[in-house]
Each structure stands twice: as C-alpha cells, then as structure tokens.
Write the structure tokens for this entry.
Amino acid sequence: MSDLDREELSGSRPEQPPSDKGGISRRSLVVGGIGAVALVVLGGAARATAGEIAPIRPPGIIDADHFIATCIRCDRCRTVCPKDIVVTCGLEDGIINMRTPKLDFYGDSKSYRRPEGKDQEAIKADPYPNLLVAAGKGYCNFCHLCIDNCPTGALQAFDPNTQWLGEAVIDPYLCIAYEKLGGCEKCADYCPFGAITIDENRLPVVDPSKCNGCGVCVNICPSSTYRTYKGSKKRGINIESTGQDRPS
Ligand code: SF4
Ligand code: SF4
Ligand code: SF4
C-alpha cells in the first residue's frame, strides 16, 4: 500500500496548500472574477444612469452637471418651442436624464422654405435673419423662447454664432451624393450658416467651426425619401451631440 492509499484510508490526508501554479491562485481567480463581474455591472449601471449617448440639449445649457442640477423637468421648453424639436428624455437616455428636454430633429415636418427674392441677400449678409423668417418645423431657429420660459436658469442666453447645439455629420451610407457621386447638394444649398461646401468629388463636407447644429440640413435632406428605408430615422446628415461650447 502506498503512502497516499494509507492517508486516504486513515482519513488523515493533509490539506493541500492553495495552488500557486502560474502565479494565479484560485482565490485570485475568484476575486478577479468578482471584480470583472462588478465592473460589467457597474458599467451597465453607469450606462443605465447616464445613457449610452449624451442627449442633444436645447440651446443655452452651461454644462451637463449644471443642467441636471437646475432643470426641474417642468416641460415648459417643450411646450413653447415653435419648431417642435424639444422632446422629453426617456429611459433610453439614462435615469438621470429622464424627463429632461432633448432635441429631436426627425419630426414629421419637411417644410423648411428658403426665403426668396430680397431675403436671399439678407441670408448672405447675416444668416441669423434667415432662420427667423424661415417657415417650417424640425430645426432650431434660436428664437430664445425655451430659454425665456425656463424658470430656473437651466437654459441661459445662447449665441448661435459662438455656441453650438451639436455638430452635423454626414453619413456616407445614407447620403445620396455618396451613392451617386453627386446629384444632391441640398444640405449645402440650405445651410443658413455656410457650414457645408461641395468638394471636387461633388460630395458635401461640413465645416465644424461654422456648424452650430441648427438642424436645417437634417430637415431638408431628402435621403429618407429617395433611398430604400434602412430601418431608422437617420438621414444623410445628422446632428451629433458634442457639447455646446466650441473648442478653442
Ligand atoms: S430656441 Fe426656439 S426653436 Fe430652438 S429649441 Fe428653443 S424654443 Fe425651439
Ligand atoms: S442633403 Fe442629404 S443626401 Fe443631399 S448631399 Fe446633403 S446629406 Fe447628402
Ligand atoms: S450644417 Fe446643418 S446643422 Fe450645421 S449650421 Fe448648417 S444647416 Fe445647421
């Protein structure tokens, strides 16, 4: 009978010390596993709390923390917006953002009309009046109504020439010009701030230093009308959340 057999039969086999093979003990693995699970849970909790993508806010927020602390979810900005772009954050935007306002440029209106005649000259001289006289919904004309009706100062004075709501970004998979190598220049034609040019390949290019995220280009983009529906409201050009202060 071997020593091992004897130990097993007598029940006196000594406990093995924790294995240290490869420098990783079972305990380390368990602790590491718990840590990894905790990170995943915390990451999920953080996403659930703050949302995957920062919402695009109405004009005039100072910063995200100030806004969350001062917005009382009263809904006034949404009710006064004449362009119907202020909507309410839901659970998909994160728990801390729920019922706070965000901008949605994908309304059902595509009725932006560029003023004709004399107003065209005014547009070239100063893009701001263009937005004030433009008809239609689905973009921000910086009318200030949401700011004026905010009772807590969560929204404050906003200058569309030096601040922004977000940034227009071309989606080459949806933009008609990318598919046909030209053929559509609507966003460049209608941008009231001269932020979009057409390059030598007849493709639209956004200048982020001029774009303030007003959403006129999203509103006028015909990609969802002329292309096969791809399963979302996105268009050939979309506003992405980038904060409201231009980088210096
Ligand atoms: S500034 Fe006017 S158009 Fe823009 S979000 Fe506020 S209320 Fe709406
Ligand atoms: S309006 Fe839309 S489809 Fe036309 S060039 Fe601009 S992004 Fe592309
Ligand atoms: S590129 Fe679009 S969002 Fe930006 S200023 Fe021009 S129209 Fe407005």
Remarks:
- The radius of gyration is 28 Å.
- Residues 1-24, 115-120, 122-127 have pLDDT under 50 and may be disordered.
- The CA atoms of residues 3 and 91 lie 65 Å apart.
